[in-house]
Amino acid sequence: MSGVGRDWAGEQLVLAAQRGDPEAISAVVQGAHPHVRRFAQHLCASSADAEDAAQEALITLYRKIGTLNATAALASWMFRIVRNECLRRARYLLDRGPLTADFAPEIVASAEDEVLRRLDADQLTQAISALPDLQRRVLIMRDVLGYPGRATADALGLSTTAMKSQLHRARTAIRHNLDRNP
After folding, report:
1. Separation of CA 84 from chain center
2. Maximum pairwise Cα distance, the chain
3. Disulfide: which of 33, 146, 150, 162 matches 99 by Cβ 3.0-4.6 Å?
4. 44 with 92: CB under 8 angstroms?
5. ∠ CA(167), CA(123), CA(105), 5° rounding?
6. Which of 59, 140, 47, 53 is nearest to 88 (CA)?
7. DSSP one-letter string for the chain
8. What is the pLDDT along the chain (182 residues), one digit of tens a residue?
9. Among candidates 5, 136, 142, 141, which has minimal Cα distance to 71?
10. For residues 32 and 8, is the Cβ–Cβ distance under 8 A?
């Protein structure tokens, strides 16, 4: 991401935005939008989540640019916000439980059970986050969001065979990661 800050938000513009200049803030937010959206597309499971994460990051930028200490840190700050928002959305989907009626979520019998369930969800979220971009997107679309195979393949510009191969690799990597870190 080197040079991103220089392309769309020069130091003087960022300084003016930090001082509260409405035109400068607007210019920084508008300039950031395509970069933030593109980054979110690589991290989030779906285009809708990516757009929502990008919008959340831009709202945060608008509201909190005055708190940014270094103008050079703008791009990394924005991308960290997007990454955190994409992870928050993935965790939310994982915490909601299975999508089909045949697998009703377990009723929590005790606080210990709830803690263990959350630990398992955190481990799973970390394992999913560690996957390569394409495998992560395929896995989330198929196994978390429940998209049909053809729809997943089409959305990602893959053949059905390639999508199935990526899904198999993702599931294998997740299993390996969870077995290694019980």
Report:
1. 6
2. 58
3. 146
4. no
5. 80
6. 53
7. -TTHHHHH--HHHHHHHHTT-HHHHHHHHHHHHHHHHHHHHHHSSSHHHHHHHHHHHHHHHHHHGGG-S-GGGHHHHHHHHHHHHHHHHHHHHHHH--SSTTSPPPPP-SHHHHHHHHHHHHHHHHHHHTS-HHHHHHHIIIIIS---HHHHHHHHT--HHHHHHHHHHHHHHHHHHHHH--
8. 333 334 566 778 888 888 888 888 888 888 888 888 888 887 777 777 888 888 888 888 888 888 877 666 777 778 788 877 877 777 676 665 444 434 334 444 445 444 445 545 667 777 888 889 899 888 888 877 777 888 888 888 999 999 999 999 998 998 888 777 65
9. 5
10. yes
Q: Decide: residue 158, CB within 10 A, 0-12 exposed, 13-18 middle, 19+ buried.
A: middle
**Token output for 99:** 């999508």
Q: Report how far residue 62's alpha carbon sits from residue 54's, in angstroms, rounded to the nearest whole number.
A: 12
Q: Which two tokens stand for residue 16?
A: 């003016």
